[in-house]
Here is the input.
Amino acid sequence: MFPYNRMHIGREVRCNMNEAEELRYLVLAAQREGNRMLARGLRPLGLTPSQAEVLRVLQEHQPLSLMQLGGLLVCETGSPSRLVSGLVGAGLVERTPSEADKRMITLSLTHKGEEAASGVAEVEAALHGTISEAFDEDELSGAVAALRRLVAGRLAGDALARRSGLSRPP
Here is the structure.
């Protein structure tokens, strides 16, 4: 571990953090700040970021079984059954018997859920605009490529790859 210099409150301080450790904390900080911004935008819709993700995944891929939905979510690594139950209770998602297998239940958005998902898309677009403004095109592409490599072969990375239509992240 090599110490290096950083500015702190107008004065230079010596850090004992290596770049990999700093990157870990920067990714964590960016995720938390992004989640705070997203939560603030979703507040008027009465949704959490996890609920919003379910609505948007269903909007893009419905109908889905609970297991299929779980395989596309980044916010939940286990079964999203409790999350879905809350959305069913709110009248945003409906459970119906699968046409292919009557023992299986499929999930889809209700009309109210479609409207909520469209509201979520607007909030996400504003957040994505904020993110895009922080980088030039090359920086954004480089950051995406680096983070794809970092999450490749891991649960959340694979879920995101399935959602974007990639079989595995590059």
User: Anything to note?
Assistant: The helical segments are 19-42, 49-61, 66-70, 81-89, 111-133, 137-151, 155-163. The beta strands are 4-8, 11-15, 64-65, 93-97, 105-109. Residues 20 and 26 are 10 Å apart (CA to CA). The first helix runs from residue 19 to 42.
